[in-house]
Design the sequence.
């Protein structure tokens, strides 16, 4: 019999591992190593009627009985959050696959990883290049790629260490602070947040502010861990990694996030539920056997033929290719959704 976790060899970061006993690796504490906490109501509907959903060590997740949103409660105080996102956080090994610190320049600049999926998230829904804002820009790797493709880019990031690395290694200038402190008269054609919305204390504000910052017809791209994932039901390690307590303050399902975007005024244009782990392993093995060299996209799936070296401002807009194989794989992911979801909506 195969142990469940054998199918999902997820390595836990330092703060995830220590979080099992309620001790944070970073951040101010209030005795016994535990960070200062606060109890909150539901961010989406304001309700205070919630039920326990799950627990990992000292940290609990609750589910709002009114709107279905899941959130960490109690959670670290808003004032304590910046202290969690030092270079130590970004150096966690499980973060390097998202293009953050890897012993110098970000790992997105290394071999074997490209940005074709994230580029396509934006470009296949717009007719021309324009201006792009990334919220939670980390060390600016994605912004650098989009800038090199001819986009006018701007980023917001709460971590000073990450902002300094973006300037040093990627040549990208990023605003250091929360979105609430970001002032801009400029409107954008795309607003992207890859694995950042779950970290912010007020996701409803971030969605509403993003709507305000977009030009008419502009798109918002949100990628977050999926609470309805098949993988987190199968693997405890994947569940702990997805929860990432106490840093993930809100935990989204496709239905709850879809409803919030629509109520803000967005029209949903695409929802990607990713591939389950068993399907990722199968497609990865097939691609290795057929092509020899194995190149992964920024989300772990086999990449298309767009290489970072070919990306420049004269390149045509990326268009997602659909064939019967892709359609079949997407159908399987609807039945067995993977660990994350990407939702794209238009103003």
Sequence:
């Amino acid at each position: 019999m195969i142990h469940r976790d054998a199918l999902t060899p997820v390595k836990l970061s330092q703060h995830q591992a220590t979080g099992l006993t309620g001790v944070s690796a970073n951040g101010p504490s209030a005795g016994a190593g535990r960070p200062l906490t606060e109890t909150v109501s539901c961010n989406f509907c304001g309700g205070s009627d919630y039920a326990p959903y799950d627990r990992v060590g000292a940290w609990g997740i609750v589910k709002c009985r009114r709107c279905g949103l899941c959130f960490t409660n109690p959670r670290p105080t808003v004032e304590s959050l910046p202290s969690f996102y030092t270079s130590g956080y970004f150096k966690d090994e499980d973060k390097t696959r998202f293009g953050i610190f890897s012993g110098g320049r970000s790992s997105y600049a290394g071999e074997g990883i490209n940005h074709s999926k994230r580029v396509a998230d934006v470009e296949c829904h717009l007719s021309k290049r324009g201006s792009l804002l990334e919220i939670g820009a980390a060390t600016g790797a994605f912004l650098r790629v989009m800038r090199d493709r001819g986009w006018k880019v701007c980023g917001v990031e709460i971590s000073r260490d990450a902002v300094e690395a973006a300037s040093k290694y990627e040549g990208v200038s990023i605003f250091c602070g929360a979105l609430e402190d970001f002032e801009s008269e400029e409107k954008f054609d795309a607003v992207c947040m890859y694995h950042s919305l779950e970290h912010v204390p007020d996701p409803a504000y971030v969605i509403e502010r993003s709507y305000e910052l977009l030009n008419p017809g502009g798109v918002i791209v949100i990628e977050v861990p999926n609470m309805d994932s098949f993988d987190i039901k199968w693997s405890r390690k994947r569940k702990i990694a997805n929860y990432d307590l106490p840093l993930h303050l809100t935990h989204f399902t496709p239905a709850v996030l879809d409803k919030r975007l629509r109520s803000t005024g967005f029209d949903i244009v695409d929802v990607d539920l990713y591939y389950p782990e068993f399907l990722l392993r199968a497609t990865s093995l097939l691609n290795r056997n057929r092509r020899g060299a194995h190149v992964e996209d920024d989300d772990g799936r086999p990449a298309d033929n767009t290489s970072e070296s070919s990306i420049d401002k004269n390149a045509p807009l990326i268009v997602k290719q659909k064939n019967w194989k892709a359609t079949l794989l997407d159908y399987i992911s609807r039945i067995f959704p993977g660990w994350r979801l990407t939702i794209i909506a238009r103003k």
Observations:
- The first strand starts at residue 37 and ends at 38.
- The radius of gyration is 19 Å.
